[in-house]
Fold:
Amino acid sequence: MGLRHLARRGSAPATRTLAGLPGGIVTRRRGRGSEPEDVRLWSEGDDRRFIDRNATARTGQLHVRTHHDERDRAVVLLADFRPSMLFGTRRALRSVAAAEALALLGWRVAADGGRVGLAVASAGAPTVLRPAGGERAMIAVTGALAQAHADALGAESGSRAHAEPPLEATLALARSLLPAGGHLVIASALDDPGPGFDELLTLLAERIAIRLILVSDAFERARPPGYYPFALADGRRGTALPTAAGPAGESAEARLADYARRGIAGVRLDVETGPEAYAPLMERLDAVL
Structure:
């Protein structure tokens, strides 16, 4: 809820918001919608059905009225709160950064008259909210994000170790919430997403618009050399020598480029930079939804 002011900052009134559904967003595409665009002089090739009688009678010259197409924008936010996301070395956990980015994007969509839904992947039962519009819908989304994250932390703090569940099950569930022409935004580090994740994601990208927020911790991009002690939830302890990570950000950028070739655009989210830096990224992502 505290990030709402950042979502409004720098947002230009590129679209006008209408009340009610369907057609909550008026686009700049000219077409035969019901929302007027402008009135102009008749030119050869114009459809006679759109002659504006009032302007024609007033001026004595033929005028036509053009219109906006309308569309109902529905966006489902998929947050990854599986055990691998409950990790972070600077500022916050990766799961927290994912929730912050999705909340910023959700507030932008809701402010423009769109509908926002939620699907949360975790070691327990998934959290699901069907797309709905308005401030009340985003309040429900932020509350569900906070509760799901608290449940994920509580489950991980127990003595019993939780295996990393596959992400494709939640991906299929999120797809079922979307109407035709909907958008799916995934915030995850994509650690061990499951054997069928990439195949399912590629198939879904042919039917719906999918955008990716690839969460990246500073330790992943540039970790100091040396041995690192570790302790697992099942009580095992040891020391590990991580493999070389290569240039900073190379792995994340390579993954984003690979997904872009499949029609899935995305951005890299650096956990340590914080919500102030996330806002322009979410504004850029919102522009292509």
Observations:
- The chain has a mean pLDDT of 84.
- The longest helix spans residues 135-156.
